[in-house]
Amino acid sequence: MQQLFKLLLMTILLVGCTSERASDAQWAHSDLSSYAAAFSPNGKYVLMGDTDAPARLWNLETNEVVYSWQNHNEVGTTTLAAFSADSKVAATVEQGGVVSDVKASFRNEVDIVVQDVIVLWEVATGEPMMRLSFPVRIKAIALSQHGDYLLMALYDRTVVYFDVIENRVLKIFEHDGAAVNSPINQLINVVSISPSGKYGLTGGDDQTARLWNLETGEQLRSWKHENSVNLVAFYPKGGFVLTGAGNGQTHFWNMKTGNKQYTLRTSIWPKDMELPDFPSFKTTTSAFDFSPDNKYLVTGHPSQKICLWLVANGDKLDCWQVARKKALRPGVVLQAVAFSPDGKAIYSESGNGIGQKWLLQ
């Protein structure tokens, strides 16, 4: 009986495997490989961060480089890329050099540190709006609606809510280790700001995603996962959040009640049955986007896979695999995915430096 179950399980997994699908358009957006990628919320641009090369803003319609951005005359690695919700401000984070005896005003410590530089760029003109140096490495960044506030996860295990105009820290958030029975605070991996600007989301190595009131600093919700949380996002229409864990599941939650609406399942396992505790049924989500009408969700995964979902109930509509740059090179990490402005196509950017367009049928 056990042998029969194993045979049946393997059959299900093989049938559920997704084959590579040829894209409707493809471009080389990075010379070798990209370090970071972000699509503008209006669907017009993609910002690519390269290793030892300027960050480049591409026009998706013409596939032309609009601007090449770097910090002064030094070309460093662009480790993060992001946009404000209105698509008018872009942010790049470049890894800087070692700075000695720098005092971080919000930590009151003096040390030898590695400095990261954030530059905020005006998308309309390509001109730098502000340059911010932080004596702490930055792991994740999110911009507010108009780019006047930043939420940043730092490698010192804190998240800083920063007022760009006033140039000052407003709040500091931390993840204690209670959820994973640790006496120390845990590293925070991802951050997000709600469309209203009132709430923030953080996800960390303590396997929790947490909802905060950015104005008061109060923690409102905490959602436990099976692994370190690597994805947090607000539903654009409000009321719900999306969270995901590495080598785990991606969930859709009700902000008001804290209840889970559903779990996204990339496997073909029936929705009315509990998922087996088996690695093949757990897929990391590395990228996401909601359609312009907010009815659909697209997700990207480190396994070359892109999936399309119904937001209302979490039903999976389709999954396919992107092509690899070289046949003998292992899987491709989807760094960013986005719907076209008319909702009729999906764009993707992979760690192999390839951008692709997929028409929806």
Radius of gyration: 20 Å
How are strands sequenced across the largest beta sheet? 1-28-27-26
Number of strands: 28
Helix content: under 10%
Keywords:
mainly beta, 4-stranded antiparallel beta sheet, 4% helix, globular
Fold blueprint:
Layout lengths: L1 H14 L9 E4 L5 E6 L5 E6 L2 E7 L4 E6 L8 E6 L5 E16 L4 E14 L5 E7 L3 E6 L5 E6 L3 E6 L4 E7 L13 E6 L5 E6 L3 E6 L5 E6 L4 E6 L5 E6 L4 E5 L5 E5 L22 E4 L5 E5 L4 E6 L5 E6 L12 E6 L5 E6 L3 E6 L2
Question: What's the short version?
Answer:
The chain is mainly beta and 361 residues long.
Question: Overview of this structure, please?
Answer:
4% of the residues lie in helices and 50% in strands. The chain has 361 residues and is mainly beta. It has a domain at 289-361. Strands 1-28-27-26 form a 4-stranded antiparallel beta sheet, with no helix packed on it. Strand 23 and strand 24 (305-310) form a beta hairpin. The N and C termini lie far apart (42 Å).
